[in-house]
Amino acid sequence: MATDRPILLVEDNPDDEALTLRAFSKNKIPNQVVVARDGVEALDYLFCTGQYASRDSLIMPAFVLLDLKLPRIDGLEVLRRIRADERTALLPVVVLTTSKEHQDIFEAYRLGANSYIRKPVDFERFLQAVGQLGLYWLSLNEPSDPTAR
Questions:
Q1: Neighbouring residues of 50: CB distance < 8 A, sequence distance ≥ 6
Q2: Is residue 115 a contact partner of residue 107, using CB atoms and an 8 Å limit?
Q3: Domain definitions of the chain by residue range
Q4: Vertex 12: Cα angle to 9 and 14 (nearest 5)
Q5: For this UniProt entry, which residues form the secretion signal (predicted)?
Q6: What pTM does this model have?
Q7: Average pLDDT, consecutive stretches of 10 residues, N- to C-terminus, the chain (149 residues)
């Protein structure tokens, strides 16, 4: 597993945050999880601004778990800005949300989401889904090398 890079969890609901962190722990995913509780904080982390201005910009997350319904800047706008910037354009972004609105699904994929997953209500299913996400993005997926241009 690629344990050297963090996972960025963008989630404003404290209960969903706790469930996601617990699911990572139960699935023995060792990566550090950085939590951004709104869209501004997520963008600050990714682009090393605001409270993250001193963060090493060369260490990008292995992937981003992005909720859509966020305060300040919503998840679709966060995704739009991730894809618009050369530094993050290829960063894997998994939308993990409760929204089953067809427009949200369509727009997330149109903006470049790698995957769209609705949060299961049942904790065991949620645990399994997060475990599979971790396995795929950290073990099976071959990430793009941003320095190979």
A1: 40, 41, 44
A2: no
A3: 7-138
A4: 95
A5: none
A6: 0.90
A7: 83 92 88 96 98 95 95 97 96 92 95 91 81 80 61
Closest to 138 measured CA to CA, from 22, 33, 20, 13? 33
Q: For residue 35, report the phi and psi dihedrals to the nearest 5 degrees.
A: -105, 125
Closest to 115 measured CA to CA, from 133, 135, 103:
133
Res 32: pLDDT: 94
At CA 106, angle to CA 104 and CA 111, rounded to 5? 90
Q: How far apart are CA 131 and CA 125, in angstroms?
A: 10
Tokens of 49: 């601004």
What value does the CA radius of gyration of the chain take, rounded to a whole number of Å?
14
Residue 117's nearest CA partner among 93, 140, 138, 142 is: 93
Q: CATH fold of 7-138, please?
A: Rossmann fold (3.40.50)
